[in-house]
Amino acid sequence: MASPLHEVPNERLRAAIAASGLSRDEVAEGAGVDAKTLERWVSTGRTPHARNRKALADTLNLDPSDLWPEADPFARLVPRDLAGIQCAYPSRSAFVAAFPPERLFTGAVSISLAGLSNNLLCQHYADRRLEELLALGTRVTVLFLDPGGPGTAARELEEGYDPGHLRGLTALNISLLQRLRSRLPAHARPRLTLGTYEQTIRFNIILVDRSDDQTAVVQPYLPHSRGVEAPTLVIHPTAEPGLFETFKCVFDEIRAESTTC
Fold this sequence. Notes:
By secondary structure, the protein is α+β, with helices and mostly antiparallel strands. The chain contains twelve helices and eight strands.
């Protein structure tokens, strides 16, 4: 005898099929299965494989979690349930491919970065575009891990670089932004703030404020992994304090301890 657990009909699925206006044969065809398999899913409550759940839900213009909420409890989480996380990428390169700097920074009222070399701004965003933002009133704060400090040396060792590699890259990026600042009209120069800080680096943080929204892009620094390989989170504020506020506090603490350059 079959277990009673497998004999509980899926009333959500039964009701969705009835509401769709489609016949059982049409639903089965849309889902890529035969009518007997569909009937088994309805009458026994058995959960199909993920690809079949998706195909059947698409046929009924629903989300799979509408029909099998227990199959993936995370499928329909609203942003507050993830503390403001909107997207997650397995690496910085994957993030940049989906969310290029032009898209991230354009239209910003303020941009704040705290990281090691801050390559996303310094190497992947055109100087001309940054100058235009500053001329239009955008305030930009860029905090670098002290290139000559022990934190940078430790990270070079951690990431397998030759001594001086990250120090040189960070010093180059600082000099690029200093030169850019010198080219700005006198009234716009205070809008670009540069600084260095010294600590064991844990996160790369980018905060972007626009008139209608705020975004944080956060990467952890993982052991024996280079920054470009680190997972990347895109975070927005939520009604209740979440991760955006957490990382903004981390940035504010770094800024308070930084030295202007």
